[in-house]
């Protein structure tokens, strides 16, 4: 796989968004980091369409739907 190929590893776009929410912050404890991650992930738990928008490339959707 090429070094950077988000279309072959769609979760990369999700992790990129997640990193934006917690990047450049200093956490005093692992628990504080876990809380920040939980808070950032909550919006994706509540709205799975956001995950689909980030990760579902057209070729993936075609495969899921069984279309060519």
Poorly predicted tracts of residues = none
Helix residue percentage: 55-70%
H-E string: HHHH
Structural class: mainly alpha
Number of domains: 1
Rg calc: 15 Å
Number of helices: 4
Profile the largest sheet. Answer: none
The number of distinct β-strands equals 0
Task: Calculate the mean pLDDT score and round it.
Answer: 84
Distance between the termini: 23 Å
Quaternary state of the chains: single chain
Shape category: elongated
Beta content comes to under 5%
Q: How would you concisely characterize the structure shown here?
A:
The chain is mostly helical. The protein has one domain (11-65).
Descriptive overview:
It is a single chain. This protein has 68 residues and is an all-alpha fold. The chain is built from four helices and no strands.
Question: Which key features would you list for this structure?
Answer:
68 residues, elongated, 4 helices, single chain
Q: What topology does this entry show?
A:
Layout: H1 11-22, H2 30-46, H3 48-55, H4 58-65
């Amino acid at each position: 796989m090429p070094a950077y190929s988000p279309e072959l590893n769609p979760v990369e776009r999700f992790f990129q968004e997640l990193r934006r929410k917690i990047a450049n912050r200093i956490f005093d404890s692992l628990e504080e980091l876990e809380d920040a991650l939980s808070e950032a992930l909550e919006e994706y738990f509540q709205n799975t369409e956001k995950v689909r928008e980030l990760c579902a490339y057209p070729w993936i959707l075609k495969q899921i739907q069984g279309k060519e």
